């Protein structure tokens, strides 16, 4: 098994990871690990997607200019056989990466809440559908309902429309009153007002339904229609795709495995972005979903902290506080309504990997008991989809994270097994 050592290892090459790597590289040797074939994460997804996106083009130029080891198409699947060592799966085999300081910028994933028909083909997350289109999926003339919650719904609708899709409607569960209060607060963030106006101009003529949510999806071999509910009643909309998610949930599996304190589903950090573990820092969505601007600032602070640059840490703190306030406004404006907990019926599948229904889960009083008896959370996604759903429906939190934290190939598993037995 190959071994690599580095002063600073950055896990994740989205906005936070890029900012952290570029800042730390001023004085430290840096290694970047990301499971995508190119940097950018889900927000920027490669060099070509960055121009004009919150200074993304500038950050990619900086990234190209630093002397860093880049381990792309690589995933951290566990811990190495010595302190401060990560076990990394590469296309050519397993590798151990040693670090002096570690910056975790592992991002977030879409939050899915079960409802009748959510397992039908062509029902997927807005970000997931957008990623498929970026990879070549054709959606010309396809009728798409974009639903769930959060400002990303408009961004995805605009992107899909640009690629020829017919957007049936954008369905936002938050009430108009909450969105109105959020809009008024944007006066403090002029750039966000411009961004919102630009997105709205790209979806002119598309119905934007507030205080409305998807009750069910129906169809034969794939989704063919959805039932929408509001306090005014129910309505049916025909569609070819349903893109639905209720915001984002932080990826905290690796921080948890490393022993970092997790509170409220987020990694706890101090004013230097340092976690509860010495030499481990965290930036971006794992510390709380707050958008690209907050991620960039946190990444720079984490990078400056490991570089011993206190002046930069202190100078960026006011910016972080400003974008943290914006994140709080987002949380309040798009808070999930109580009615969403009633969407899953007793026979609704909650764990898709192991076909576990809500009725089966309700027989138990904890995640551990349900997992032991039903295998909920033990399939290929390892609880990444059903874990957040179960927390929302039943208030349970996963009690442990075990390696490998991602599904791995049989060959890698053999190497992992050999490593574990050493």
Word description of this protein:
The structure is a single chain. By secondary structure, the chain is of the alpha/beta class. 34% of the residues lie in helices and 25% in strands. The chain has helices at residues 15-24, 41-44, 56-65, 126-134, 152-162, 176-185, 190-202, 253-257, 292-306, 310-333, 358-361, 367-374, 386-394, 410-421, and strands at 2-11, 30-33, 68-71, 75-79, 85-90, 93-104, 108-110, 123-124, 143-149, 166-172, 207-210, 212-218, 225-230, 233-238, 241-246, 248-250, 262-263, 266-267, 280-282, 349-351, 356-357. Strands 1, 2, 3, 4, 5, 6 and 19 form a 7-stranded mixed β-sheet that branches. A 5-stranded parallel β-sheet has the order 8-15-9-10-11. Strands 12-13-14 form a 3-stranded antiparallel β-sheet, with no helix packed on it. The protein is globular, with a radius of gyration of 22 Å.
What is this structure, in a nutshell?
The protein is of the alpha/beta class and 422 residues long. It has helices spanning 15-24, 41-44, 56-65, 126-134, 152-162, 176-185, 190-202, 253-257, 292-306, 310-333, 358-361, 367-374, 386-394, 410-421, and strands at residues 2-11, 30-33, 68-71, 75-79, 85-90, 93-104, 108-110, 123-124, 143-149, 166-172, 207-210, 212-218, 225-230, 233-238, 241-246, 248-250, 262-263, 266-267, 280-282, 349-351, 356-357. Strands 1, 2, 3, 4, 5, 6 and 19 form a seven-stranded mixed sheet that branches. A five-stranded parallel sheet has the order 8-15-9-10-11.
């Amino acid at each position: 098994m190959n071994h690599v050592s580095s002063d600073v290892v950055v896990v994740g090459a989205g906005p936070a990871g890029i900012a952290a790597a570029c800042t730390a590289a001023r004085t430290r040797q840096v290694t970047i690990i990301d499971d995508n074939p190119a940097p950018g994460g889900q927000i920027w997804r490669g060099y070509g997607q960055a121009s004009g996106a919150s200074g993304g083009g500038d950050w990619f130029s900086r990234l190209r200019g630093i002397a860093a080891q880049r381990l792309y198409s690589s995933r951290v699947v566990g811990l190495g056989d010595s302190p401060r060592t990560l076990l990394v799966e590469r296309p050519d085999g397993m590798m151990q990466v040693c670090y002096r300081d570690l910056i975790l910028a592992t991002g977030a994933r879409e939050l899915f809440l079960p409802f009748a028909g959510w397992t039908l083909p062509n029902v997927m997350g807005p970000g997931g559908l957008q990623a498929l289109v970026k990879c070549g999926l054709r959606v010309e003339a396809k009728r798409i309902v974009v639903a769930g919650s959060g400002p990303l719904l408009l961004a995805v609708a605009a992107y899909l429309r640009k690629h020829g899709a017919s957007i049936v409607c954008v369905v936002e569960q938050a009430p108009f009153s909450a969105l109105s209060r959020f809009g008024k607060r944007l006066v403090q963030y002029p750039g966000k007002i411009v961004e919102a106006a630009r997105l709205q101009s790209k979806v002119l003529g598309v119905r934007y339904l507030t205080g409305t949510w998807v009750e069910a999806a129906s169809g034969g071999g794939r989704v063919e229609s959805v039932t929408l509910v509001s306090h005014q009643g129910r309505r049916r909309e025909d569609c070819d795709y349903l893109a639905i998610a209720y915001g984002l949930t932080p990826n905290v599996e690796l921080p948890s495995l490393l022993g970092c304190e997790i509170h409220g589903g987020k990694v706890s950090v101090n004013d230097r972005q340092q976690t509860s573990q010495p030499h481990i820092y965290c930036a971006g969505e794992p510390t709380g979903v707050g958008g690209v601007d907050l991620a960039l600032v946190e990444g720079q602070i984490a990078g400056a902290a490991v570089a011993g640059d206190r002046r930069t840490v202190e100078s960026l703190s006011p910016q972080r506080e400003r974008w943290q306030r914006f994140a709080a406004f987002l949380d309040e404006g798009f808070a999930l309504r109580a009615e969403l907990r009633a969407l899953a019926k007793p026979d609704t599948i909650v764990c898709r990997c192991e076909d576990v229904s809500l009725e089966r889960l309700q027989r138990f009083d904890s995640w551990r008991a349900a997992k032991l008896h039903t295998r909920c959370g033990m399939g290929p996604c390892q609880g990444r989809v059903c874990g957040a759903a179960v927390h929302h429906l039943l208030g349970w939190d996963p009690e442990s994270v075990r390696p490998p934290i991602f599904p791995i190939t049989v060959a890698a598993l053999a190497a992992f097994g050999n490593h574990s037995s050493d």
